[in-house]
Amino acid sequence: MTSNIKTISLNGIEGNLVEVQIDISSGLPSFEIVGLPDTSVKESKERIKVAIKNSGIQFPSRKIIVNLAPADTKKEGTSYDLPIAVAILLSLNEILEKNLENTIFIGELSLNGKINHINGVLPMCIEAHNLGIKRVILPKSNEREAAVIKELEVIGVNSLTEVVQYLNKTKIINGIKVDILKEFNKQEKEQLDFSEVKGQENVKRALEISAAGGHNCLLIGPPGAGKTMLAKRIPTILPDLTFEEALEVTKIHSILGILDNDVGIITKRPFRNPHHTTSLTSMIGGGKIPKPGEISLAHNGVLFLDELPEFNRNTLEILREPLEDKNIVISRLYSKVIYPSNFILIASMNPCPCGYYGSSEKQCKCSENAIKRYLNKISGPLLDRIDLHIDVKPVKYEKLEGKEKIETSNQIKERVNAARRIQYIRYKKLKIFSNSQLTPKMVEQYCYLNKECKKILELAFNKIGLSARAYTRILKVARTIADLNGEENIQKQHLAEAIQYRTLDRKYGDKF
Amino acid sequence: MIKLKIDDNEYPENLRKIKRPPKQLYLKGNIELLKKLGIAIIGSRKCTKYGEKMAIKFAKELSQYNLTIISGMAEGIDSFAHIGSIEAYGSTIAVLPSGFNNIYPEKNIELYKKIIQNGGLVISEYDEDNKAKSEQFLERNRIISGLAIGTLIIEGGYRSGTSVTAKLTKEENKYIFCIPSSLENSKGIVPNQLIKEGAFLVTEVEDIISKYPNLNLVKKKIKNSNVHIDIVNNEYKNIYDILDKEKALNINEIAKITRLDISEISYKLMMLELEDKIVSLPGNNFKIK
Description:
The complex is a heterodimer. By secondary structure, chain A is an alpha/beta fold. Chain A folds into 2 domains: 2-167, Ribosomal Protein S5, domain 2; 194-424, P-loop containing nucleotide triphosphate hydrolases (Rossmann fold, 3-Layer(aba) Sandwich). Chain A has 23 helices and 18 strands. Chain B has 2 domains: 2-215, Rossmann fold (3-Layer(aba) Sandwich); 234-288, Arc Repressor Mutant, subunit A. Chain B contains 11 helices and 12 strands. In chain B, the strands form 2 sheets. Chain B has a 9-stranded mixed beta sheet with strand order 1-2-6-5-4-3-7-8-9, sandwiched between helices. In chain B, strands 10-12-11 form a 3-stranded antiparallel beta sheet. In chain B, helix 2 (49-64) packs parallel to helix 3, helix 5 runs parallel beside helix 6 and helix 9 (234-240) crosses helix 11. Chain B starts with a strand and ends with a strand. At the A-B interface, helix 8, helix 20 and helix 22 of A face helix 10 and helix 11 of B.
């Protein structure tokens, strides 16, 4: 007697349909799983046997063969437990419902028959919806995450017994609905605020531009200048996530199982600040079974690298492609996965090993060579990919005492949101979200310069000695500044301000 | 403003002698300067850094011999000649190609005010409301060469207004002095050509003074000047004025003093830097060059 059940497997952040086929026939009692299962899938045999037994159903002592189709791709993880168990019970006529064409099952079994939480439910459900599936049956703790896909009927279950009862209609479980709008509008009070930072107006302005256009930003300054303090407040001025962006972010967090089960969807832009001892793999993702790394977790958010030159040089160099392509391809012999990595890179560093190069407070003790070696840890190509360079100076005591009114994060965020809206509308057809994503061809189209601006740029190039890549960077930043001002075209003041943010090309330029 | 007719007593004698003396002159500032000896310093509007340096140097040194520096208040060499003279506490005369209500070029209005403030004189042969026209640029050159005892040419491109003034000076039998330029300098064509044709080559200010033995020109000692004049576009002036030559100012301090938006300040600082007026130092600090 054979039966088929559908489930979804994960490859990278995309789901794939897998059919669980089962055949129970007479013969020597055995239980085989075929279709390239890895150890974690093979072990499910024991879990399933015990779980069925502990649910009060006798496990058949006959010849059972399970095939996971398509049989030529590797299967891994524990999410096949539930579909295999259901398929067996279906063959045993324990489950009477035969119409399971449009239902998928996902879940891990524990020995007592309970159903455990699994990772990566959201991307699976997105794929299920794309395939025209109407209903998913999955662990209770995953239900809110799946319910983000409004069109799906999401049935959260606690145990195998409950699944049987539900399918035999002896127990009614209603599909859960999540009000996504409500989650998005939930105004959580931020712990941090830019109004707590006194002075540093120029840095705040740079970060505002960075948030508005999605530009990478490097903060340079002596110890104690407030670089980290400023960077930690960036999430408070980041533009609101759009639904599409939120889905992408949630997908990645779902795969790693670090999602808040009560909410189901991530409504805030992620802020990741890995320590500088972070290994290459954990930064970009990978491993035997590829997992997303820090750069993908920071997708649509901010990756903050404190003390940039302290990072392993290889770890930094590997960021070059993701910064340009906005995704990372992890290739293995048997599989290739693509993780998105469209993040804003915010980095901070000292100008020299002692930290006081160019400072007016303290004399720098470093030799010319030591400074050179220190700055050399950051390669020119990486630096070229950072749009805004900004010097951070310590604030003097008088200013800390001052009672001047300081802008709050919300005021800044309003401007950022307005600028993002302009970009969103302008780039609607291009499937990009911000100015930083413009390709050279698009730059030509959207960053038109009038004669006066062209003259200024030419002058700047001759005087400052910028690289060719800096050219597009400046144009993109100028575009963002124009958007912040609500101007349709780039004016000379926008351009000149944008050039101002290429500090490293100018002051320390000879050292790199 | 004073108006002088050609038959007025104060009308400068040497101007009456030129081919087509202006029928009337409008003057603003110190008209006593008309009685003093003056030398013209002229050159290209788009001068090189070298030209700028030379114009200031020679204007200063000629001022020390009590000579008035006469020029056209145009961009480039003309401006620097006036500036050099003022910086050395000398006297200077600017001859406009337009009426007083339409100072040309507009960006030199600051300089115009500085000239009058520092005891200089500004002259125009045109009515107040007259606007600068291209033929008037050449016309005004005859006044410059007419008022001067000789003309020093710093830089000039091929077929430029500079060569016209040189021609006029030659016709009036006055001396032409030239600063030599590199052969690769396109703005050095006129002075080099004039030297070839017999103009005096000048490497130091005494080369000029020694050509006027009858005038008894004596070098007076002036204390080292600390007057510093810079022509800065009015738009960026509010930022430029609070910067210092010695002490660098941080961008946030500038914001505090001026109470301007940080974006506006960054833009203006960048423009000033591009115009070579200020230098930026590590840590977002700025000072005057």
